[in-house]
Amino acid sequence: MFVTVVAVVLLAPAEPPKAEVKELSAAAKKEVDKLQGKWKLVKGSRAGKEYEHTEGTPELIVEFKGRTWLLNGVEKAEIVALDPSSDPKCLDLKSLEQPRGANTVDEGIFKLDGDTLTICWYQGADKNRPTSFDIPKDKDTILGVPKRVPADPKK
Hints:
InterPro entries: CHP03067_Planctomycetes. It comes from Gemmata algarum. This is TIGR03067 domain-containing protein. By secondary structure, the chain is mainly beta. The chain has one helix at 26-35, and strands at residues 37-46, 49-52, 61-65, 68-71, 74-83, 89-95, 105-113, 116-122, 141-148. It has an 8-stranded antiparallel beta barrel. Strand 4 (68-71) and strand 5 (74-83) form a beta hairpin. The longest helix is centred in the N-terminal third of the chain and has 10 residues, at 26-35. The relative contact order is 0.19.
């Protein structure tokens, strides 16, 4: 009896090199500290259309862990720059997703009002930082409004 053994080797692509992450200023670090934790997306806008989270639709949970931005537990981006002295405050996010390219940087603005975060960022091919929190007309600009999820007191 002959037995044929076939070995299949799956090769995972090597992880792309990470872009250099610069040190944030003390003021920028304080702003990042204010963003820490989980935030539930309650509404958003893109391409002139507004969306609101309604009962029965999947929740979108944004989380800041250090300088990392997660969406529903998946790492999506890293804060590479933050300017708390500008009006509105500026925030640059480097994509950690392969389809977009690991070194793609999205320019954005944000404001924090109590437990409500308003963030608007541009995901197009060029540099085009938003200048307001108006409903974006183009498909490459996203406006999101998440509210802070209270910390679990058991943890």
